[in-house]
């Protein structure tokens, strides 16, 4: 498989590059089976890798078990395929730490030491927390796509009985069928919501086990005659009901009748070849032509080579350097790295100081390859395989004959070729990856890394140098063991001319070794200030004054961190770089070799292309997050895709972030809880159909502490038991008995470059398939409920326009959407949200098949969902049940609304659209008429009540109208606890336009006086004192406020109109104190503030109404009516005889009613006019309402 890597460090963009760390010794290549081939009915190139975690004391038992199990497996494979395939040769990779002596590890063949990475097909490791020691398959891709790897526990191989070997081979064959040909299990799982353990047989209607395997047969699957497409199995859902054998026949092994059956019934006995990883061997093959003279290209090459050799190559690794132009020569022979001698400094400085002037068109790539192979031949260990890293601008004018010779030599010597395209010059608005080395890279399973030319005039930007260093580090990482190769933990660029201090954080976790290195790369040494400060996770501040080191040959200042604390670190670096340059900060560490946190990225298209005109070839990105051999769940995994080059304005393209999910919905993620996160690349929605080259990278972290890992418990059995007693796991999700929080971690990997071809100008991408459709029946009311997860508009992105749901009598009809269409589906919601629908069906005691799919705005229809079966028992005859009549009409769902509701229970209608419209219209019109009648009656009754209330109010208000008059003070001794109203009325008041007295029946003044004289004796009581008090009152300088009540509105003095008042006094009736009163005058008129009651008339007042109270003994203290003070009395008030004073007595009463020693706030009113005695008419009126 060839993957193209394009390393670019854009301005102010974080670039995190952490290459894959795996649990085995060498970096494996999963997801492709290029070396595994079926040749003449025999498989060749199968690799079985033994985990480094297994103790070497079990070597003989494990190797003996591998030999016997694979021999039995070959025989069973021949029978299962009808004599068309068996096993011919197997390579067994031993751990590097195992000692191969005759006592503990006796081999049946020679042992070969290899220096290149191996491809793992079958892994032997410790027991899995769920699957145990039984073989299991990691399968990430869809139907017809190969699996990732098979793993089995070493305990299954360390048994010594033939029956155990036969059982292990049988279980291995079941996983092999899925691994090689991309099929799935044909049985259900206990308590699985999508793939249940039982289902109702479509023929008999009787519940049966969900199992398609034939008892007594060596076949681990069913052929076309035994296959049941209606069964709710994972295989039927993923492969749309096709049989397993149908898919196997269409595979590359048997397509077009390849490898026909053989006559012999005896299978091939596989031969075993034993290999063991050795020290990595790397040769750097560097182009030395005139193109390197431009800008600072050659200087950056020298610095990058020195950085990798001196600081990044692990100990015990071998490295050499070859430069080539028209000829090739070795500048540094292959040598072993160590920390004692000067070998690192010598090889790191072996590059020529200046490049040659030989034109690029004269370069000889074949010469460089031949010279590198000669350098490898000088190795005394004579290891097999190596890694050649070509640093070149491309193939140039290399002929096809030379290219074929290069491929032949590389394959014969079993070397892996890594290519770094440096520099790649692109024009604005375009990008190009044509380099002519694709064939060589693909033949040796290498990779291509690309460094963009970011030159500015005659200068080069520092980001080019850092990108080149990262590319070399990536190549070295692929060739070395995880425990020795460095890991790039953190990488971030800080442009100059913006901030004076570069601040950031990085995290060190338990999977890293105790030592780390903090490095600052610069273009010019003066760009780095004096301040470099680190803060440990415990808060301790580390200054770099005594710990930093400088290497001018690599343009780096670094700090070694021995025994670095685990956790989050902070740093501050003074940035003095120019605006067109900057600083770059990196943190590297080595794997601890004990606990390894890894991130691995791959795609569904190994060729690295995206065909925009073929929606069926949509590319899926996968990321596996592992803690050693255990999956990490609930991690935050984000893929970033960014188009390379510049747009029409010369600016960089904005990146698009894709959150990868481990949800087990089936499309694209197959199984939840397996640690594999996946998502479609939205090349139409976000790439806008524009061809070009796009860089893909993935980051993963512990999701703010939410990430967890399973706990290994080899004594637990968390699996379902099948019909033959075997343990079955897992269907839609992997369930663990116990989980523990994952250690804080952060990983990032750059996958490489994807080429987007075939520009499209319209939306042709359909929604993804719904593969989690579930159905349930409520037996109490016979209601059917469907549940599913909303698909996207373009695969798993966005929201579909509407749904199409089909109810059919047969599985075939449901698959073709030929049954009754369900109307009134709920409005779609955003991808990943669960939706439901409920309805009634009138077909009983028979299977009803239900399918659903989404349709986008462009009319693209998603694939058929998993088809579910509904069985509704016939209801009792005494219970009426709403029924429906099915319709095959397909309504225009483009007119259905799009909303945000998640659920919308509905009833499937049995009428046509026109009938339903008439019924709904009639019912709606009737309801509108009823509502209008109710509203009319309500307002009519309310109006009548309001009018009646108004008339009653008018009657009450008529009795409350008060008019001014020249009156005497009326004092009723028998009404001391009631309000006493003295009304003063002037004759000239009638001339004003005021409201007349109410026509309601009332007592006249003469009648009131007559009634009073009948009740009281005029000659008795203290009438003379009252007359004197009234005379004093009449001589007061200020009149009392007019409290005349007219039509329930209060009157204002002329000077206190509503426009000049700013306070709301209490209600009028609350201004009276309880009777009797005590009033002590001790103020002058100037001390009194104006009285501003709210709501009174603005007309001036000439008279006032007052209340007079009497103490129990002595002279009668009086208080004005508007006083708000309440006094307590120890004696009840005495009766006061009525007295009609003369006008001259008012002056005397005025002195006695003023308060003593207190200040009140009576209103300011105009002075009352002088009246004569003969105008006074004694009147008395008892006011009952104010």
Automatic annotation (TrEMBL):
Gene source species: Meganyctiphanes norvegica
UniProt keyword rRNA-binding present: no
Spans traversing the lipid bilayer: 916-941
GO CC term (a single one): protein-containing complex
Keyword hit for Flavoprotein: no
Cross-referenced Pfam families: CLCA (PF08434)
Domain VWFA: 281-472
Region Disordered, residue ranges: 1084-1112
Keywords annotated in UniProt: Membrane, Signal, Transmembrane, Transmembrane helix
Signal peptide: 1-24
InterPro entries on file: CLCA_N, VWF_A, vWFA_dom_sf
Name of the protein in question: VWFA domain-containing protein
Biased composition (Polar residues): 1094-1112
């Amino acid at each position: 498989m060839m993957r193209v890597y394009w390393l670019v460090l854009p301005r102010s963009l974080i670039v995190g590059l952490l290459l894959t760390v795996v649990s085995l010794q060498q970096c494996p290549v999963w997801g492709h089976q290029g070396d595994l081939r079926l040749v003449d009915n025999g498989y060749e190139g199968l690799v079985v890798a033994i985990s480094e975690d297994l103790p070497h004391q079990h070597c003989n038992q494990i190797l003996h078990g591998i030999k016997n199990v694979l021999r039995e497996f070959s025989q069973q494979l021949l029978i299962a395929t009808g004599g068309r395939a068996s096993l011919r040769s197997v390579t067994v990779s031993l751990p590097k730490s195992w000692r191969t002596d005759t006592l503990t590890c006796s081999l049946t063949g020679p042992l070969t030491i290899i220096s290149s990475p191996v491809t793992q097909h079958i892994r032997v490791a410790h027991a899995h927390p769920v699957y145990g020691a039984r073989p299991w398959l990691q399968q990430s891709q869809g139907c017809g796509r190969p699996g990732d790897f098979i793993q089995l526990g070493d305990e299954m191989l360390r048994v010594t009985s033939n029956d155990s070997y036969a059982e292990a081979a049988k279980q291995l064959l079941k996983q092999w069928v899925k691994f090689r040909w991309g099929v799935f299990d044909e049985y259900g799982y206990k308590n699985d919501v999508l793939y249940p353990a039982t289902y109702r047989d479509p023929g008999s209607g009787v519940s049966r086990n969900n199992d398609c395997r034939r008892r007594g047969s060596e076949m681990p699957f069913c052929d076309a005659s035994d296959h049941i497409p209606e069964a709710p199995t994972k295989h039927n859902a993923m492969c749309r009901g096709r049989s397993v054998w149908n898919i196997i026949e269409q595979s590359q092994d048997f397509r077009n009748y390849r490898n026909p059956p053989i006559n012999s019934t005896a299978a091939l006995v596989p031969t075993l070849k034993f290999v063991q990883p050795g020290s990595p061997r790397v040769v750097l093959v560097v182009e030395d032509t005139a193109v390197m003279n431009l800008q600072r290209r050659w200087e950056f090459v020298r610095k990058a080579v020195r950085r990798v050799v001196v600081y990044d190559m692990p100990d015990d690794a071998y490295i050499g350097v070859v430069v080539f132009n028209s000829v090739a020569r070795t500048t540094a022979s292959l040598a072993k790295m160590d920390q004692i001698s000067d070998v690192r400094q010598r090889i790191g400085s072996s590059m020529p100081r200046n490049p040659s002037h030989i034109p690029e068109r004269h370069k000889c790539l074949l010469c460089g390859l031949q010279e590198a192979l000669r350098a490898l031949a000088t190795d005394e260990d004579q290891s097999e395989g190596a890694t050649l890293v070509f640093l070149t601008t491309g193939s140039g004018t290399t002929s096809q004959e030379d290219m074929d010779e290069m491929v032949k030599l590389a394959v014969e010597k079993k070397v892996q070729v890594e290519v770094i395209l440096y520099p790649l010059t692109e024009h604005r608005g375009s990008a190009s990856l044509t380099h002519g080395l694709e064939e060589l890279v693909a033949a040796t399973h290498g990779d291509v890394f690309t460094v963009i030319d970011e030159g500015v005039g005659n200068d080069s930007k520092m980001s080019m140098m850092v990108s080149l260093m990262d590319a070399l580090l990536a190549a070295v990482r692929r060739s070395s063991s995880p425990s020795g190769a460095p890991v790039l933990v953190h990488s971030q660029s800080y442009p100059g001319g913006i901030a004076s201090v570069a601040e950031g954080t990085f995290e060190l976790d338990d999977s890293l070794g105790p030592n780390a290195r903090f490095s600052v790369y610069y273009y010019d040494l003066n760009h780095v200030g004096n301040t470099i400060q680190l803060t440990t996770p415990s808060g301790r501040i580390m200054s770099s004054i005594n710990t930093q080191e400088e290497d001018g040959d690599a343009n780096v200042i670094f700090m070694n961190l021995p025994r670095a604390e685990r956790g989050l670190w902070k740093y501050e670096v003074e940035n003095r770089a120019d605006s067109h340059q900057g600083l770059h900060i990196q943190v590297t560490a080595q794997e601890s070799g004990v606990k390894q946190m890894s991130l691995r990225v791959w795609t569904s298209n190994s060729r690295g292309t995206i065909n925009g005109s073929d929606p069926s070839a949509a590319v899926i990105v996968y990321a596996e997050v592992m803690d050693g051999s255990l999956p990490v769940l609930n991690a935050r995994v984000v893929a970033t895709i960014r188009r390379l080059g510049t747009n029409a304005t010369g600016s960089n393209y904005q990146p698009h972030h894709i959150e990868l999910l481990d949800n087990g919905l089936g499309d694209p993620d197959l199984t939840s809880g397996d640690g594999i996160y996946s998502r479609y690349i939205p090349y139409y929605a976000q790439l806008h159909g524009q061809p070009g080259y796009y860089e893909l990278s993935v980051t993963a972290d512990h999701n703010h502490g939410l990430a967890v890992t399973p706990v290994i418990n080899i004594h637990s059995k968390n699996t379902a038991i099948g019909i033959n007693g075997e343990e079955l796991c897992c269907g839609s999700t992997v369930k663990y008995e116990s989980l523990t929080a994952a250690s804080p971690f952060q990983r990032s990997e750059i996958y490489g470059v994807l080429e987007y071809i075939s520009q499209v100008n319209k939306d042709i991408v359909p929604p993804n398939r719904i593969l989690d459709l579930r159905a349930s029946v409520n037996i109490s009311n016979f209601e059917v409920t469907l549940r599913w997860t909303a698909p996207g508009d373009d695969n798993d992105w966005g929201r579909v326009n509407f749904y199409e749901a089909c109810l059919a009598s047969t599985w075939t009809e449901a698959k073709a959407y030929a049954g009754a269409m369900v109307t009134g589906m709920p409005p779609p919601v955003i991808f990943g949200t669960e939706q439901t629908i409920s309805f009634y069906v009138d077909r009983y005691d028979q299977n009803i098949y239900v399918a659903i799919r989404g349709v986008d705005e462009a009319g693209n229809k998603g694939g058929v969902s998993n088809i579910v079966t509904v069985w509704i028992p016939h209801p009792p005859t005494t219970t009426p049940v709403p029924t429906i009549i099915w319709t095959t009409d397909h309504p225009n769902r483009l007119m259905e609304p799009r909303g945000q509701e998640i659920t919308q229970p509905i009833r499937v209608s049995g009428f046509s659209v026109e009938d339903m419209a008439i019924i709904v219209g009639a019912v709606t019109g009737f309801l509108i008429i009823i509502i209008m009648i109710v509203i009319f009656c309500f307002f009519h009754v309310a109006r009548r009540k309001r009018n009646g209330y108004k008339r009653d109010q008018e009657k009450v208000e008529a009795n409350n109208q008060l008019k001014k008059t020249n009156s005497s003070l009326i004092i009723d001794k028998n009404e001391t606890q009631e309000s006493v109203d003295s009304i003063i009325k002037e004759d000239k008041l009638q001339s004003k336009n005021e409201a007349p007295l109410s026509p309601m029946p009332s007592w006249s003044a003469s009648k009131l006086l007559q009634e009073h004289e009948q009740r009281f004796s005029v000659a008795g009581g203290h009438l003379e004192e009252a007359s004197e008090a009234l005379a004093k009152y009449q001589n007061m300088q200020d009149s009392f406020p007019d409290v005349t009540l007219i039509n329930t509105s209060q009157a204002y003095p002329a000077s206190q109109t509503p426009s000049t008042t700013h306070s709301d006094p209490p209600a009028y009736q609350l201004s009276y104190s309880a009777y009797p009163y005590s009033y002590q005058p001790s103020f002058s008129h100037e001390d009194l503030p104006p009285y501003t009651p709210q709501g009174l008339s603005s007309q001036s007042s000439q008279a006032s109404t007052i209340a007079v109270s009497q103490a129990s003994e002595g002279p009668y203290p009086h208080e004005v009516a508007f006083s708000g003070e309440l006094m307590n009395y120890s004696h009840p008030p005495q009766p006061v005889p009525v007295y009609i004073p003369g006008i001259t007595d008012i002056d005397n009463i005025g002195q006695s009613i003023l308060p003593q020693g207190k200040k009140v706030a009576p209103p300011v009113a105009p002075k009352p006019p002088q009246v004569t005695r003969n105008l006074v008419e004694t009147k008395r009126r008892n006011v009952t309402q104010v």
